[in-house]
Amino acid sequence: MTESYDADVAIVGYGPTGVIAALTLARYGVSAVALERDRDIYPRARAVTVNDWTMRIFQDLGVDERIEKKIDPQRALRWVTYDGTEIMRVEHPPSTLGRKPRFYNIYQPTMEIELRAAAEEYGDRITVHYGAEVTGITQHADGVTVTSADTATGETRTVRARYAIGADGGSSATRDGVGCRLLGDTNDVTWVVIDCRVKRWWPDRDFLTFWSDKERPVVDIALSAGNHRWEIPLKPDETPEDYPTSDEVWPLLRALGVTEDDVEIHQHAFYKHHTRMADTWRQGRVFLAGDAAHLMPPWAGAGMQTGMRDAHNLGWKLARVIKGELPESWLETYEAERRPNAAFYTGLAVQLGRVIKQELSEQEQAAMNAVPQDTVTPFEPPLIAPPVLEGGWIRGPLGDASIVGRMVPQPIAGDAIGRMARLDDLLGDGFVLLGADVDPATLLTAEEKAGWDALGARYVAVRPKTAYTHGPEELVDVEQLRVRARFDGRGGVRVAQ
């Protein structure tokens, strides 16, 4: 019997994770239908930053330039006490991943509007049903049926797809519906998030500042589009009911030296920090991504970004499996690659939270600021360092002296006839082996080459700019940045040296 599908992939939830999943699937040639409970974009600014890795994903999806117009470069991070003592600072050196800034400040609702607008340009390849509350997910041998009800009329809709992605947040109905368990803890402290419109500039407004204090630590963040945010914990004897309007919130800002001359309070909300992860991110043909799979404290600025990276990683793999370009077993690499990275950022966020709450001993603080000795790879603080894969589709030893699992830099490169562009744009899609001044195919055994050939891989020598190219497919390292290794979740690029 011929199966009938409404789309190749059903996506439950259409926040940042869901829309990146839809864009990736459409970008790689398959269709998606998204079911979103809310009819409008969530109006509160939740995430506050994106970095060069996320911008590289936007580049792959063809939306980087339009997003860059909506966000602002971030100056630096600092941790200070109320008496002005600086505990720690993280400067942002120029990025090696294709953008000069490492980090950008965002205003999430504005960024989401732009991402959804980009998705609309795919026409029928991306269909979105707003006001659709998912009520059930049923798996079959060759597909998934998702049932939803219209939040206004109660009308029932069923969507038939080959696979489904649960991107419906921390209270995911998808996760519960397929029997995955969310493990971990929730911190009892309630935080108030105060979003403001800026009325005038004040000194060092462009730092992302963590005011470190045992009783009242504060997160002080310049957002894009003239917005600013403070996140402040409530004391044990305080509750959200003590802050019903902006009038009650203002004393919290005045205590920080912020006045009505500086900002106008736009909105405020309350939340608690979660440190949780699903026991598995896949059940059959249903996958979890973003907050449905993992919840982390906000201190590393990685919650939303981790979800978008999940969606991109899973999206291109699903697309190529659906198109018959990769075997179904490739989907097993999704969680293997993404879970360790989500766990890394969760642990980093917890540790940075201890800094802002002054929970670290002097020895722990010194260890956190220490630069490792006798390392081969130049050290960068974990918060800003390029990612490293710890599992999944990699081969060879991991470690400081190894290039395995590391993301290749993205310099401006040239092709054989002199056209210059960022490396990813010159390489295009698919699997590529890069050789530093050598044809990488010549370094493979017959068996190894057969394996790469089966994936449709291309073999590209990257020549120094002081040398000749020897073929039309070769590239030139114009910026003289020696290409080393790459695994960015896009198609897997390795280097032979």
Automatic annotation (TrEMBL):
Enzyme class: oxidoreductase
UniProt-listed Pfam families: FAD_binding_3 (PF01494)
EC number assigned by the record: 1.14.13.127
Keyword set, alphabetical order: Oxidoreductase
Gene3D superfamilies given in the database record: D-Amino Acid Oxidase, subunit A, domain 2, FAD/NAD(P)-binding domain
Segments forming a coiled coil: none
Top-level taxon of the source organism: Bacteria
Domain FAD-binding: 6-342
InterPro entries tied to this protein: FAD-bd, FAD/NAD-bd_sf, PheA/TfdB_FAD_monoxygenase
Keyword Isomerase: no
GO molecular function: 3-(3-hydroxyphenyl)propionate hydroxylase activity
Full protein name: Bifunctional 3-(3-hydroxy-phenyl)propionate/3-hydroxycinnamic acid hydroxylase
Organism: Streptosporangium algeriense
Lineage of origin: Bacteria, Bacillati, Actinomycetota, Actinomycetes, Streptosporangiales
